[in-house]
Amino acid sequence: MELAPLVVLMGPNATGKSNLLEALLLLSRLATEQTLAAAFEPPLRGYPLEDFGLPEGGLEKMLQQDSSELTLEAEVQPARAFKSSKRTAEPVRYRATIRIQPKTGLLEVADEFLVRLKRDGSYKQKPRIERSGDFLVVRQLGEAGAPRREPLGLNHTLVSNRRFTGEHRYPDFDRLRTELSAWQTYYLDPRIGMREPQPPREVTDIGPRGELIAPFLYRLKSSEAHRKYFRSIGRALRAAIPAIEDLDVELDPRRGTLDIVIRQDGTPYSSRIVSEGTLRVLALCCLAANPWPGELIAFEEPENGVHPRRIEVIADLLGSMADQGHSQVVVTTHSPTLIAAMYRRAQEVPGKIKIFRCAQHGRATEVSLLEPPALLWQDSEIRNALTGSEDAGLMEAMLLRGWLDG
Q1: What's the pLDDT band for 367 if we cut at 50, 70, 90?
Q2: Quick check: bond before 43 cis, omega within 30?
Q3: Other Cβ atoms within 10 Å of 205 Cβ, number
Q4: Strand order of the sheet with strand 68-76?
Q5: pLDDT tens for residues 32-60?
Q6: Among 1.10.287, 3.30.565, 3.40.50, 2.40.50, what is the CATH number of 1-14+295-406?
Q7: What is the pTM of this model?
Q8: 244-251 and 296-300 strand pairing
Q9: Is 299 helix (H, G, I), strand (E, B) or coil?
Q10: Contact predicate 128/138, CB 8 Å
Q11: Where are the domains of the chain?
Q12: Contact by Cβ (8 Å): 134, 149
């Protein structure tokens, strides 16, 4: 998949949209966590074993296998890892193959590859990491003698190993780690996570579930240098939901915890009781105005719980994040309204937004670029792209039983 500054993944349930977000998250964690076991921990779903391709017999059949493997590969445009670097870093290609022993849960590196690329996609120099027999060859910049050899079967990737660092020895390692560590995947939890009491903390993000939104806002409000971002979030929230008059975050001096207060129609409401949709919009406003933005930001269905009339605002917030050029944005959605809004925006800014359709083909996911001709774009095309083969029959049965207001 060739991505864009803003990527929308659409399709029915169980077609692999969430798997794509988790692949981004796992790739980031493989390059930054100290062990493979840590890389596979939550917020990744399920057991580590379930992140590998299951055979037709499911877990029971997989547990009879000696091993199973998964491979993730990406071409990445790294951010600058060194202050002394004046040129834009060249792209790199990175691949990691992880093997698991189903009976014991043992995880190990089966292959790893890292190479710097020219602008045309060809290799600029010898790979920094590549497999040779039962070893991984590691080359440092300007190395004259024989390269280092590391055994296969390690419980961590070589990119995650901080021994390989330094602008003059392993610059591609540092650049890749810096880039992938700034990838953030959000599964916002306004029901519980975003309402949990939190003390003040020096955070630069709202957290994967939005659980750190209160200390994030409090840090912005309390800092002279960052207060303008707090005011910007308040303005964006009021623009998104006109009934909201004010946003504040307060410290309880007795409990030492923070509380977000939203004034709506003259009445102050705590974040403990404001609607889930309001908290979701607030989270998106925070990320759009974050002075420490991630290089890549991924969302699981950001429109959930948001009133349909506010979904255009969601599209504008996501678009503004990508337009600023600081972050690449990837979202999954089931919302025809959000998809239509994104398609209209894509026509206005060609090349900035791509919409992909995820579809199930047997046990595989097929991802295709959705490019209907502008004059032929109809609601029916969106509906068809969001409907699985079983959905139409289900809806018909519900109508016949009187469960839906037909």
Answers
A1: very high
A2: yes
A3: 19
A4: 68-76, 92-101, 106-116, 129-132, 135-138, 148-151
A5: 999 999 999 988 888 999 999 888 888 89
A6: 3.40.50
A7: 0.85
A8: unpaired
A9: strand
A10: yes
A11: 1-14+295-406, 33-182, 194-293
A12: no
